[in-house]
Amino acid sequence: MTDPLNWDDTPAFLAVARWGTLTAAAEALGAGVATVSRRIERLEAALGVPLFARAQTGYQLTDEGMALMPRAEAMEAAMDAFRNAAQAGRGVQGHVRLATAENLANPLLIPSLAPLLAAHPGLTVEVSTDVASVNLHKRDADLAVRMVRPTRGHLTVRRIGTLGFGLYGAAGYMAGRGRAVGFEGDSYIGWAERFGDLPAAQWLARNFRAVAPAVVTSTLASQLSAAQAGLGLAVLPHFLAQDAGLQRVPVELGVDQDIWLVMHSDLMASQRVRVVADHMVGVIEAHGARLRGP
Fold it and tell me: Which segments cross the bilayer (predicted)?
């Protein structure tokens, strides 16, 4: 005779599957490691199948566990919908984690939050700009506004705008440059090697092959600062460069990037996530022409 199935053990199963260790899963759930371990063992006993293979490096889903993931995620989504329906009369409440690029967050998205939060006093928005470490499939964030379209995971993806880029320099640098044709004699601001896959970095590599950069940086903010200091030309988003008073070199770069709204598909029914997602879409669309640039 198998043990009775306890539905409360499903969140522990999902957390361990997503994080890979009992310690990380316990932290995500706000529970003790022993509690999470006990819930996994109880669930395996009730189902009569091993859900995880234990190893020194962590927990790996078995084939049986992998097959149950969609069902467990559907239960999680149903519980979210149930909770949202219960809270509908009290307005949108809860914590929403948004992942995005710093160049969109600081000048555009964060300043736009005031009316959203005023309309929903029970809502908290956490903004993460450390996009490299964000994994929506593991629920590091609830939704993302990003320039790279993800190709894996149980995600819903929507194109919501375009971020245009140009080649810019400070007024003093541009005055000294005169009416130069091509880039011979120009200085430029490069990207650190680990960012070599960025379209801007690749464009610079193609067009300044024989020239070393005047300075190399690892953030867009420092690229902008270096250009403002007159250290050379930089590939920058039009709206940031123009707000900073930089001047554009009249050349088409072909490195514009689409802006994507990305959500974990199971959160589509979540009212708190949906209201933040709709707000982000509205902000990007309202600033569409500014973001695209000339």
Answer: none
Indicate whether 170 and 136 sit together in one domain: no
Whether residue 2 lies inside any domain: the answer is no
Measured from the Cβ of residue 117, the count of other Cβ atoms closer than 10 Å reads 13
- CB distance 76 to 266 below 8 Å: yes
Handedness of CA 55, 60, 62, 64 (dihedral sign): positive
Long-range CB contact pairs, 275-282, < 8 A, 24+:
275/92, 275/116, 275/120, 275/123, 276/96, 276/98, 276/116, 276/123, 276/125, 276/142, 276/143, 277/143, 279/112, 279/113, 279/116, 280/98, 280/109, 280/143, 280/145, 280/160, 281/158, 281/160
101 and 75 together in one domain: no
pTM, 2 dp: 0.67
* 10-residue mean pLDDT series, the chain (294 residues): 74 89 85 89 90 88 90 80 62 86 92 92 89 57 86 81 95 82 86 90 90 92 95 96 94 93 81 91 92 89
Between CA 150 and CA 70 the distance in angstroms is: 19
Cα distance between residue 287 and residue 34, in whole Å: 50
State the total domains in the chain.
3
